[in-house]
Amino acid sequence: MPRFSANLGFLFADRPDVDRVAAAADSGFEAVEMHWPYHVPVAEMRSALARSRMTMLGLNTRVGNAAAGDFGLGALPGRESEFQAAVDEALSYGSGIGATAVHCMAGAVPPGDLHLAENTFVANLREAADKAAQASMTVLIEPINHRDKPGYFLHHIEQAAAIIGKVGRSNVRLLFDCYHTQIMQGDLTRRLETHLGIIGHVQIAAVPSRAEPDEGEVDYRDICRTLDRLGYDGWIGAEYKPRGRTEDGLGWLAALSASR
C-alpha cells in the first residue's frame, strides 16, 4: 500500500522550515521531502526529523543561477563542474539528515542543443550515481512540463526511461510526477504500468491547478488503486500548492487512504 509524504517546499509554508516537519507529522504524514533545505543547518534539520520520528525522503540539487534563468544544471554543456558541486552538496546534506534520494535537476536548454544536452546529462548522471551509491542513496530524474518550465530538457516519461537505460546504474530511478506527466502526455495508468520497474518515487497534485489532489482532471483514487494493483511499495509525495492553509485542505489524505 503506498504511503504519503509531504513536500515541505509547498506544504505548511506559513511557518519556518524546521517547524514544517512537526506539522506534517501531526497531520498524518509518515515522511517528508523538500526542494532546497540547504539554508537550514544539518544538525537542526536532523534534530527536527528525529523529534517527529520522520524520514526525509529526498531533496533537489540546486538550480544554479536562478536570476539568470537556471532551473537545474545536469544537462547544460560546459557547466559539468557546477552540477557535480551541486550533487556533492546534496549528497553531503542528504547523508547528514538521513535522506534516501537526490533529485538531479536537468535544466532548460535551447532546442538546437538537445543531442549534446542528452550526452551531457547521461555522463553527469553516471558520475552522480556512482557518488550516490557510496552514500547508499538513489538518484532521481523528473520530467517537468513545458507550461510551467518552458524549455526544460527532461519533459516526458519515455525520454527519462531512455536516459536511465543509457546511464546504466541501478540507483538511477524515475520520479513520476503525475501533475507534470498529465499536462505533457496524459495516459497516466498505462505509463505507470509500463515504467513501474524504474519508478523510484511518485508525486501528485491537481491538474491543471496544482492544488490539493481532490479536484481537476485526474482521479487520484484510481491512481492509488492502480499503484496498489501494480505492487508499488514506494511513497506518494504530496507536491501541491494549497488553496489556503495546508491543514484546512487535507481531506484528500483520508479520502485517498480510504479508497484503496
Explain what the structure shows.
The structure is a single chain. This protein has a single domain (3-258), classed as Divalent-metal-dependent TIM barrel enzymes (TIM Barrel, Alpha-Beta Barrel). Helix content is 40%, strand content 14%. The protein has nine helices and nine strands. A nine-stranded parallel sheet has the order 3-2-1-9-8-7-6-5-4. The longest helix is centred in the middle third of the chain and has 21 residues, at 114-134. The protein starts with a strand and ends with a helix. The model has no long low-confidence stretch (mean pLDDT 96).
Give a quick precis of the structure.
With 260 residues, the chain is of the alpha/beta class.
Please give the CATH class: Alpha Beta
**CATH architecture descriptor text:** Alpha-Beta Barrel
Mean pLDDT equals 96
CATH level-four homologous superfamily name:
Divalent-metal-dependent TIM barrel enzymes
Q: Please indicate the percent range of residues in DSSP E strands (runs of 2 or more).
A: 5-15%
Provide the gyration radius in Å.
17 Å
Helix tally equals: 9
Order of helices and strands: EHEHEEHEHEHEHHEHEH
**Number of self-contained structural domains:** 1
Tell me the strand order in the biggest sheet. Answer: 3-2-1-9-8-7-6-5-4
Question: How many extended strands?
Answer: 9
Largest sheet: 9 strands, parallel
Based on secondary structure, the structural category is alpha/beta
Name the shape in a single word. Answer: globular
Give start-end ranges of low-pLDDT stretches: none
User: End-to-end distance, in Å?
Assistant: 8 Å
Determine the fraction of residues in helical runs and give it as a percent range: 40-55%
At the fold tier of CATH, the topology name is: TIM Barrel
